[in-house]
Amino acid sequence: MVFSVLDLLCFFLFMILPYSTIAQTSRNISLGSSLTARNDDNSSWASPSGEFAFGFQQIGKDGFLLAIWFNKITERTIVWSANGNNLVPQGSQVELTSDGQFMLNDATGKRIWYAESAGTGVAYAAMLDTGNFVLANQSSSTLWQSFDQPTDTILPTQTLNQNSNLYARYTATNYSRGRFLFALQSDGNLVLYTTNFPQDSANSAYWSTKTDTGFQIIFNQSGIIYLASRNGSVLNPISPNAVSIQDFYQRATLEYDGVLRHYVYPKSTSSSAGRWPVAWSTSTFVPPNICLSIVEGVGGGACGFNSLCRLGDEGPICQCPNGYNSIDPNDALRGCKQNFVPQSCDQASPETDLFDFQEMQNTNFPGGDYEHFRGVTEDWCRQNCLNDCFCAVAIFNPAGDCFKKRLPFSNGMIDSSISGKTLIKFGKVNSTLKSAGGANTKKKDNSTLILVGSVLLSSSGVLNFLLPVITYLVVSRVYSRNAKVNQSHPVMSGMNLKYFTYEELKKATNEFKEELGRGASATVFKGVLVSDNGKCVAVKSLDTKVRENDLEFRAEVSAIGRTNHRNLVQLLGFCNEGQHRILVYEFMSNGSLASFVFGDPMPNWYQRRQIALGIARGLLYLHEECSGQIVHCDIKPQNILLDDYFTARISDFGLAKLLRMDQTRTMTAIRGTKGYVAPEWFRSLPITVKVDVYSYGILLLEIIFCRKHFEAVAEDEDQMILADWAYDCYKQKKLHRLFKNDDEAINDINKMEKYVMIAIWCIQEDPSLRPTMKKVTLMLEGTVEVSAPPDPSSFISSIL
């Protein structure tokens, strides 16, 4: 931790201010007083200034917490609690009895908590303006105080002695003891631990002061927090920023995510709504980056098992990799679970074709390796993990090391300082066992209904006569109903898609309220599938008024339903019910490439390279690797979406043109978007996969330079058309003119030039000169050399 001379000077000047002799005023709470938990704001005792209060706070619908909180702030932040592990119901009572006992009883009179006072003689209680609640005798000597029994927070004027602990709460709204512990040990070392949750004992240390003479943690009235030795000297300044307690409310809290934070809140704005701002800069959180700090031999790491931790602006963010869902959406630290059927270990059928890998850079899962291979290639590492039913994650580094990890994997972390590549295995197709079970149950219910009816009716001679007729009617009704359902959801062979009813999708989208985007023939809405653990989806409703809508619907379902690739948006299901033609896709949380590349701030050069490569791989799959060759026909930034990890996913196959395996060219009307359309569209020439290569070339230039292919307002007329300007700058060796405030790209100008050369090859007027997407991918990967491209011709400008 580095401090300026001014910081240190201020720190030591404030150190000489007294912190142990603050005058206290209080409103004495007499013997026999009590508070009852109820649904109002009157179940509390306030301090003389009204800044703190002691009493009951209702925690959602779970019950009541006996607590101390900041009373003048709209967000009445709790700083101490008595019964976090055991909330009490309405009607419970805390009482200072006539004989000086201070206890909490539930509504039945059962004792839940009590204050163990030192000896007898309690005469009164008081809520002080420091935030300390005390029990005192007639001489005003303190017999018990909340400052000696901290939970997750310390306040100005409070000290923690050796063997004192702070326990993080379980979640933001659950005040039971959680997964992290802040301890000043008897050996003088101040340590942050993970716990052996649900036990309170320490598990693994992830930060410490490495001292052996620490005696007290002091939070003085100047707002400075430090570790002091027995003689009072400063050993470690934990929060050296001096902030007046006269002007600011302050607290230091061990948060549920394991980070110790020092907060301040201006008293002048205490009556307004708002969150506590953090006093420290991000780099001085304790620890600075918890994602990298926690590497447990036993335990799930900072975010739990099968999860990944990355540092955001306000602390750690937990996320699940592809193929995994959060176990509890209300508890991100609980980890993630698989949402696919695990790989079979049957040697005769290893099912390798049903699994793929999510590639992640700057990612690691330290520890937990069960195999380590040296001197291998990435492809070898990938295939070895794919063939191994126990392998859930493979880590490959540039030195040729391959590490394999089994489930559950732990200590997941994402950070720019991490090198190498992580491969996380996931199932391409989700399990259908649940839906199959549902169908069997329905069939079983129908059979049971018929059987029970037969038994009941057979007890009468008259009814025996009617039995065949009634049975026939029941069976006919059942099969008729099933037939109607099947007609509403026609099965399309060769695809594993879910069939949704219109009512399901209407409910999932809250009656189609949240619009994500709108095109010429469809509108996309955000939806939430309650039946799938609240999974977010994109629901694309085709416009029923558009001509040949049914053909477009069938084209898109046919095109996407049979594809599966990490760089394509996955179609999850569809609805074809009456006039309603709706497609249900994966939800891409980071929106379109257009908003990412053309927005502010500019994405870094590494991200842009990965996106460009991902799009190329997706097009290669469509052109050469899927069961039927597909020409997308509308490659543009708006049709490239970004998932949680900013992986590029090609979307919108509504304009896709499928080619038979023996067909490489086709004639069709002009499709696509102005500016990205290949010249052959305008010359009535046969259309091939090379039209996508052309569109990709224009898109690649946009990715490289983070500007649109055409800008009507430009410094110079020569700069309006990006493709022309890029070629001119390339020929003149002046590519740096295309970059605005992009030092990273300028410093990597040789690679930038290579990417520009690839783009120019892609936008050649003659389709035969354009490379295939396979060659484009190899050039981007560096496997194939990039030769100098010819002039793509001035025809580009005529099509805008």
TrEMBL record:
This protein's record includes keyword Glycoprotein: yes
Subcellular compartments: Membrane
GO terms of molecular function: ATP binding; carbohydrate binding; protein kinase activity; protein serine kinase activity; protein serine/threonine kinase activity
Family annotation (InterPro entries): Bulb-type_lectin_dom (IPR001480), Bulb-type_lectin_dom_sf (IPR036426), G-type_lectin_kinases/EP1-like (IPR051343), Kinase-like_dom_sf (IPR011009), Prot_kinase_dom (IPR000719), Protein_kinase_ATP_BS (IPR017441), Ser/Thr_kinase_AS (IPR008271), SRK-like_kinase (IPR024171)
Residues of the Protein kinase domain: 510-796
Membrane topology annotation: Single-pass type I membrane protein
Signal sequence, renumbered to the chain: 1-23
Main localization (coarse): membrane
Name listed for the protein in its UniProt record: Receptor-like serine/threonine-protein kinase
Organism: Prunus persica
